[in-house]
Amino acid sequence: MIENNIFIKPFRTMGGAVPFDRITTADYAPAIREGIKEHDAEVKAIADNEAEATFENTIVALDRAGATLNRVLGVFYPMLSANADDALLALSERMAPVLSEHFNSITLNEQLWQRVKHVHDSFDATGYDAEDQMLLRETYDGFVRSGANLQGADRDRYRQLSKRLTELTLKFDQNALKETPRYELWLTEKDLDGLPESALDSYKQAAKDKGRENEWLVALHAPSYIPFMKYSDRRDLREKLYKMYNRQCTEGEYCNLDVLRDIANTRLDVARLMGCKTYADYKLQHTMAQTPANVYNMLNRLRDAYLPVERSEMERLTAFATKLEGKPVQIMPWDYSYYSNKEKDSMFEINDELLRPYFELGAVTNGVFGFAKRMYGLRFTPNHDAQVFHPEVEVYDVTDEDGRAVGMLYLDFFPRTTKQSGAWMTSFREQYIDEYGNDVRPLVTLTMNFTRPTDTKPSLLTVREVETFMHEFGHALHQLLSRCKYQSLSGTNVYRDFVEVPSQFNENYVYEREFLDSFARHYQTGEPVPQELIDRLIASSQYGAAYACVRQLGFGFIDMTWHSITAPYEGSAFEFEHDAVKDVQAFEPVEGCIMSPQFTHIFSGGYAAGYYGYKWAEVIECDAFDKFKQDGIFNRDTARQWVENILSRGGTEAPMTLYKRFRGSDPGIEAMMRRDGIINK
Q1: DSSP for residue 57
Q2: Residue 7 lies in a domain
Q3: 570, CA 20 to 30 Å: which among 115, 291, 352, 525?
Q4: Residue 555 maps to a domain
Q5: Active-site choice (138, 360, 430, 472)
Q6: pLDDT at position 421, please?
């Protein structure tokens, strides 16, 4: 019976923790349907209210509506990415169009829209603060962007297109999730040249888990793929693995080529219906960038600054490889990690394997938590009573300096077949003030794919994995430190091109001696990282910065090009992508290889016409960290200003307003260019 469904009432657990031990796949569908029913009734009551529409009885009421649906979707959506079996994926396919229709029915409710419009048009800001005004503006704009101004057949068309997009993006996402585990590179003893002990242990364990002795297994998730491409002396196998990785979802049962074209074309139809030339024009209205022209201006400025340096880096690397091999070498994409790792080691005597022993996962976790304590006064206490959705997940209660509850943090570290690749932060519950004035604190989860422990070694991270931890932890802090009234504006509910600022800001600390000294110890001896090794790490931090930037720009150009089409595209996705990156490509295109069919960020992950936001945000966070460098990287007064103006404010004011309040000026690209060694002044 629905009354017994775990989602129907607030969780009766300590801190509102999700009772995963009582949740089954069968609970989701009836809870979603009941949540929709309740939400519909609440929306109808708002729309039918005979009293004049006001900010309180319409705008605030809408923000608070849908508690049951929010509760179930707050668990359902994260599980689709982190712990989805076939039954859950099949359920998501059935529920996606139902949910799409439900949310469309709200924004296309004419009676409700007229009330929202009345409040907007007659609003007197006297007595309302900036957050109230932002909630009204965001609610009004959200209705407009979702077709509220459309009439008749156009409204019906919008419903159809929205439903179609929901189905297509879900299919794209599921294809990518199902495709990756299908690719395996099996090795025998003759294939192991160059591979470090840490990689061999991991590959051996992966093969053992599949019941195969005397073999080694390389998979496509990052902790497996990256070490092989970086260290294997077998160029033929590097090429084979590279082509496996870059041909995902290009053929067979999980091919995404037709799906991504349908997504791009359907998005164009939505944009046209909304009176915009392209989907990028439509989407960017709700960003800091505002227009495609501003995005391209930023991408092109960075291209012009970084590309000459990247070209010089590649010439130097080619000369290095030629000298190393004793014969001319044409560096191919499956060679870059291999030779750049060797060149970096020759220049700085530094590589991942030298540092891994000092980055044991437990120690890194303590270091990350110690960073938050030193900067913001937060404490993280293991919660062994909270239920988890997988045995490997860890839970922590987060409190402030006065012992008050800040929230809960779930850490999910390792790859598995039911988890998407990559790393991300999401929330089972966001922060807000409820109708009784209670500050509801967030339940935050960090999902990553780190190097697993083996039978003989604990999980030992690379520098990049430590960066990833700090990055996602920055998102978590944005949620945990939120002090907002309205759920739709709290935490990371900010413009897409601002959301990466707190996360990328955190990455800077990985190359700061003061941070590393606080936790990095050899997992066997307990000795701290030798000072000269830290010096080499810091000295090497600019190595390959231009290549990394140009590569990231390429992803931005792919995204913007797909979402800047002005007519439906029916041609080759390979030709389309290759043309999009021709001005920033480091290598000639490899036949059959393409990024787009597995580019979940833009085709199913919310970053459509928004991937540029990583570089946009990087400009801002580098400028912000520049202030910390001036004041002291752990300066508590500066950290307090960072919390008060950025981390606690969510989307309650325009991002640049918040940033300028913190910094006192607009950000420029000079700080990023100095950090990357592109300029010296």
Answers
A1: I
A2: yes
A3: 291
A4: no
A5: 472
A6: 85
Longest dimension (CA), the chain: 85
**In contact, 57 and 47? CB cutoff 8 Å:** no
What residues contact 258, with CB distance under 8 A and at least 6 apart?
A: none
State whether 419 and 496 are in the same domain. Answer: yes
The identity of residue 654, as a single letter, is A
Kindly give, in sequence order, each residue whose CB lies less than 8 Å from that of residue 41, ignoring residues fewer than 6 positions away.
none
CA distance 608 to 599: 10
Q: Of the candidates 246, 266, 301, which is a domain's last residue?
A: 246
CA distances (Å), 274 to each of 157, 216, 228, 260, in order? 11, 54, 47, 21
Query: 50 with 475: CB under 8 angstroms?
Result: no
* Nearest partner of 180 among 77, 79, 75, 84, judged by Cα: 84
Looking at the domain assignment, is residue 445 inside a domain?
yes
310 catalytic residue (yes or no): no
The reply to whether 118 and 188 lie within a common domain is: no
Place of tokens 């339940």: 443
- How many beta carbons lie within 10 A of that of residue 189, not counting itself? 9
Reply yes or no on whether the pLDDT at 115 is more than 80. Answer: yes
Domain of residue 74: give its range.
2-149
Residue pair 624/668 in contact by the 8 Å Cβ criterion: no
Asked if the model's pLDDT at residue 45 lies above 70, the reply is yes
Task: Decide if 61 is inside a domain.
Answer: yes
CA dist 159 and 107 (Å) reads: 10
Residue 464: both structure tokens together: 């990049």
Using the structure block, give the residue that is written with the tokens 């979940």: 600
Q: What is the pLDDT of residue 442?
A: 98
Token representation of residue 190? 């003759």
CATH of the domain at 51: 1.10.1370.40
pLDDT of residue 681: 64
Are 632 and 533 members of one domain? yes
Nearest to 517 by CA among 672, 301, 371, 391: 371
Hey, CA dihedral for 10, 12, 15, 17, is it positive or negative?
A: negative
Residues 136 and 212 in one domain: no
**Could you tell me if 409 and 485 lie in one domain?**
yes
Compute the distance between CA of residue 489 and CA of residue 85 in angstroms, rounded to an integer. 32
Burial class of residue 618, CB neighbours in 10 A (0-12, 13-18, 19+): buried
Distance CA 369, CA 383 (A): 15
Mean pLDDT of the chain: 96
246, 268, 298: which is the final residue of a domain? 246
What per-residue confidence (pLDDT) applies to 2?
A: 84
Same domain, 376 and 489: yes
Exposure string of 358-379, with b = 16+ CB inside 10 Å and e = fewer, is bbbbebbbebbbebbebbbbbe
Instruction: Give the rounded distance of the alpha carbon of 554 from its chain centre.
Output: 18
Residue 519: phi and psi, rounded to 5, are -150, -25
Do residues 92 and 237 share a domain?
Answer: no
Predicted pLDDT at 64: 97
Q: What pLDDT, in 10s, does the model give residues 496-529?
A: 999 999 999 999 999 999 999 999 999 999 999 9
Which pTM was predicted? 0.91
CB atoms within 10 A of CB 634: 16
Same domain, 89 and 202: no
CB-CB neighbours of 88 under 10 Å: 15
Residue that has been written with the tokens 């989907």 in this structure: 279
β-strands 379-382, 424-429: how paired? Answer: unpaired
Q: Is the pLDDT of residue 4 over 90?
A: no
Reported confidence tier of residue 316, pLDDT bands at 50, 70, 90: very high
What is the DSSP track for 540-581? GGGTTHHHHHHHHHHHHHHHHHHTT-SS---S-HHHHHHHHT
The predicted pLDDT at position 1 comes to 63
**Paired tokens of 55:** 């900010």
pLDDT digits (tens, 9 = 90+) for 582-594: 999 999 999 999 9
Confidence of residue 290 (pLDDT cuts 50, 70, 90): very high
